[in-house]
Design brief:
binds magnesium ion, 18 strands, Glucose Oxidase, domain 1, 8-stranded mixed β-sheet, TIM Barrel, binds phosphoenolpyruvate, Enzyme I, Chain A, domain 2, alpha/beta, 8-stranded parallel β-sheet, 3 domains
């Protein structure tokens, strides 16, 4: 069905191109996200840093120079992959890890090109391939190649990574935008996005949708039709950019805008209410967050607490490990901002495929089956203890905190964590006995032994991202087996059902915090097999709540 979808895009493009001259005072394009906004224009250009004028060093130095830059970008992408629409960034990270790409860079360097030139040559060739690809979808990936090429160039040349700075609420006009640009936007300043290129399936468009920004693409000629600072109205319903509307048109647009704003307000307002099924059961809906910046959005989207706080960001953003005090402040502040709603802090979940710059670890042959999550923490106690102490201290002032352990496979692992926790509490002279301790259920061993694990912990949270890959024995990042990585597989559903039943028998709550929890197409199935608590990214919560209200158990 992918093909059909892409074909219809082609048709739409032609249709709109045909329409291009028919509206006076507006540029027409393709709508990618609904909404009407009026604001001054900011014109954005994102250029490739130039190849520096320097002599060739040693081959090994040149190679190391590119390697380092790529590693830096991959780390950042893997961090971004943890956020909304993270799959785009995982895909970019995978593009950068392609051995063929690397071979080409290396051979250019061996033929005497400096690192920056070798990188650009390679990526230009790759972009060229995409530009001539058969399907529209593949052609739109050219922008992705340009994006990763530029990020690595910025890293190598030390050129100022020009995070687009926007001072007042504006509508952005650009040729095309990079996913890395869109991800860095301050949503309160970017009211709308209009691209002269791009496409419905381009990643910048997907991100704009995820962020809820009214947007349109393929607005050909828009950059020439307006100047910076000019007031325009973007109609994201129709895909029109009005630069010279008649008074009549402007009035109609203003009325429509008010109608849209009211509808949005009421959707958000109902997100603040509990999600009750048709047959009257209230289903708690919580948020997944990656850091303090996600909190506002989570609360305005109706989160009834945080079901998953991925603490990795604290560790991945820096060359040095965060201190106990730094961690304590972050945990305490987030918990305080939540009032009496729960904050579920997941202990450090890195290792193998997610290296820590500040804590280098030997490479593994099968990183997904290696030293990940709790396994790594138990092998590196000092690293773990610092986090446990920070959590214990924050818990003393914020009793809404609970601890969640990832990648648990054995009862023994839980016992070890609890022993470390008790020891640290004793050293700090605090009481840890009330701190709820739960585990992620994301390893098949934990499902099969859920009854015994339930005796040891206060809650379960099902991580379907990993559970699916481990149940199906199919790497979640490997496109060759992507069909197997499907949480609707009967075996995965069975694993979820078994987990819910074990939780019920032991009388402990079971929630889900993997991507499946936020998928409205999965909600009925999940309620049917016993799930009663959901945690998903903020932008998905209003829709998820609306979906729950339509369903019966
Ligand atoms: C999961 O595995 O489902 C999960 C929520 O954790 P992560 O995606 O961070 O591995
Ligand atoms: Mg996981």
């Amino acid at each position: 069905d992918g093909v059909i979808e892409h074909q219809s895009d082609e048709v739409e493009t032609l249709h709109h191109e045909g329409n291009a001259q028919t509206i006076e005072g507006a540029i027409t394009g393709i709508s990618v996200n609904e909404g009407i906004v009026t604001a001054p224009v900011v014109l954005v250009t994102s250029e490739m840093p130039p190849v520096p004028d320097r002599h060739f060093g040693h081959t090994t130095d040149e190679i190391a120079h590119v390697k380092q830059a790529i590693e830096c970008v991959v780390q950042r992408l893997q961090h971004q992959a943890k956020q909304a629409k993270g799959d785009i960034f995982s895909a970019h990270s995978m593009m950068l890890s392609d051995p063929e790409l690397w071979q080409s860079v290396e051979s250019h360097i061996q033929s005497g090109m400096i690192a920056e030139q070798a990188w650009l040559e390679t990526l230009h060739a790759l972009a060229e391939e995409y530009r001539h690809a058969e399907t529209l979808y593949m052609r739109e990936r050219e922008a992705d190649v340009h994006d990763i090429a530029r990020q690595v160039m910025v890293e190598m040349t030390g050129a100022k990574s020009h995070a687009i700075e926007i001072k007042e609420p504006s509508i952005l006009l650009a040729h095309d935008l990079m996913p890395s640009d869109v991800a860095g936007f301050d949503k309160s300043k970017v009211l709308g996005i209009c691209l002269s290129e791009g496409g419905k399936t381009s990643h910048s468009a997907i991100l704009a949708r995820a962020m809820g920004i009214p947007a349109m693409v393929k607005a050909q000629g828009c950059l020439d039709a307006v100047r910076s600072g000019q007031m325009v109205t973007l109609d994201g319903f129709k895909g029109h950019l009005w630069f010279a509307p008649s008074d009549e048109v402007q009035q109609a647009l203003d009325a429509q805008k008010i109608e849209w704003q009211n509808a949005r307000k009421s959707a958000l307002a109902s997100a603040q209410q509990v999600a009750m099924t048709r047959d009257g059961l209230a289903i708690p809906v919580l948020a997944n967050i990656g850091g303090p910046n996600d909190l506002d959005n989570a609360l305005t989207s109706g989160a009834e607490g945080v079901g998953l706080f991925r603490t990795e960001f604290l560790f991945q953003d820096s060359e040095v490990l965060p201190t106990e005090e730094e961690q304590y402040q972050v945990y305490r502040d987030i918990a305080a901002a939540l009032g009496d709603k729960p904050l579920t802090i997941r202990s450090l979940d890195v290792g193998g495929d997610k290296p820590l710059a500040a804590y280098p670890m030997p490479a593994e042959d099968n990183p997904f089956l290696g030293l990940r999550g709790v396994r790594l923490c138990l092998k590196h106690e000092a690293l773990f203890n610092t986090q446990l102490r920070a959590i214990l201290k924050a818990f003393q002032v914020q009793p809404n905190i609970q601890l969640m352990i990832p990648m648990v496979a054995q009862v023994q692992e839980v016992k070890k964590v609890k022993a470390l926790l008790a020891h640290q509490a004793q050293q700090l002279g605090v009481d840890a006995s009330n701190l709820p301790v739960g585990i992620m259920i994301e390893v098949p061993a934990a499902v099969l032994n859920a009854d015994a694990l339930a005796q040891e912990v206060d809650f379960f949270s099902i991580g379907t991202n990993d559970l699916t890959q481990y149940v199906m024995a199919a790497d979640r990042g490997n496109t060759a087996v992507a069909e197997l990585v499907n949480y609707f597989e009967p075996s995965v559903l069975k694993a979820i059902e078994l987990t819910c039943a074990a939780g019920d028998r032991a009388g402990i709550p079971v929630s889900m915090c993997g991507e499946m929890a936020g998928d409205p197409n999965a909600t009925q199935t999940l309620l049917g097999i016993g799930l009663r608590k959901f945690s998903a990214s903020a932008s998905l919560l209003p829709g998820l709540k609306a979906q729950i209200r339509q369903l019966s158990l």
